[in-house]
Amino acid sequence: MKTWEELEKLQPKVLKIIQNSFKKNRLAHAYLFQGKKGTGKKDAAFLTAKSYFCEHLEKNYKPCGQCSNCKRVESGNHPDLHFIEPDGLSIKKEQIEALQKEFAKTGVESNRKLYIISGCDQMTVNAANSLLKFLEEPTEGTMAILITNQVHRVLPTILSRCQILTFQPIPPKMIQQELEKKGTPSHIAALVSQVTNNIEEAFSLSRDDWFAEARTKVIKLYEVLDSRPDHALLFIHNHWVPFFADKEQMEMGLDFLLFLYKDLLSIQIGNEDDVVYLDILPMLKQQGLKLGQRTVLHQIVSILNAKKRLNFNVNPQLLMEDLVLTLQEG
């Protein structure tokens, strides 16, 4: 679970709204946290729960982290905090009914209760209707936090009874910085931050040996195209196709190649701060001077077209052979 300061860096607007609600004692009885996966919604929900139950709030909004309530929320053992997530593929009516029975009881520690429903868009129709009744008649001291990655799938009647807080995608530079703080090499962190804006997924990819090797393969292909173009088709046959073995891997390989050619364009227009392949910057600079912007743009379009063709189940080897021939032509 992230601290207030950590989440504030990632989602400043959301944390400011929650902060002001605590300070002014104007907490809503129901919140809906919506945004893409990995944007900190679940962490923010539990952080809000810590503030809700904290015995010694700092500055009237920030949980102290030391009291028994904070520690029990942190460990998942607070008796008046209930967490629901899909049971299999959905959240079922029985789960909501069990929650309602719990909330009919007096709070164990105080008159406050809070429930978090993660993946609220995955509720069955019956579960959603049961929750709606619960939201329409909230008991005093009860707070709900609903979490969704797909707000369009939540019933409008539920949305109308919640204060909706939108979690923004995390900027690539911020993801890169977070990875580097954890010891990820800069050249890996820079590429990972372009592939996903999900911090959890970014951490996973940054430690994936296949990801690092895929990056190396892409650089090697670029070097072959630049210095030994007559070996490019052989490289595709012996090294590229066997490594990028399925459609998902092939698409990622094309994305990596696309980022490299975009780096060339960034260098040409004077935006070196946007370069992803930092460790080969000198080579890219040299190549950027030799090629015109129109040539690089044509190469970028060629890679994008290859990605489109991949979705039409074109033979991967033929697709890559066509692509390298096009890249050679410039």
TrEMBL record:
EC nos: 2.7.7.7
InterPro entries for this protein = DNA_pol_HolB (IPR004622), DNA_pol_III_delta_C (IPR015199), DNA_Rep/Repair_Clamp_Loader (IPR050238), P-loop_NTPase (IPR027417)
For this entry, list what GO says about its biological process.
DNA-templated DNA replication
Q: Name one Pfam family in it.
A: DNApol3-delta_C
This protein's GO CC annotations: DNA polymerase III complex
Q: Does the keyword Cytoplasm apply?
A: no
Look at the named UniProt entry and state the broad enzyme category this protein falls under: transferase
Q: Name one GO molecular function term.
A: 3'-5' exonuclease activity
Alphabetical UniProt keywords: DNA replication, DNA-directed DNA polymerase, Nucleotidyltransferase, Transferase
- Domain of life of the native organism: Bacteria
Keyword set includes Transferase: yes
Where does the DNA polymerase III delta subunit C-terminal domain start and stop, copy by copy? 246-328
Q: Which reaction does it catalyse?
A: DNA(n) + a 2'-deoxyribonucleoside 5'-triphosphate = DNA(n+1) + diphosphate
The protein's matches in PANTHER family, at most eight in alphabetical order, are given as:
DNA POLYMERASE III SUBUNIT DELTA, REPLICATION FACTOR C / DNA POLYMERASE III GAMMA-TAU SUBUNIT
Query: What's the protein here called?
Result: DNA polymerase III subunit delta'
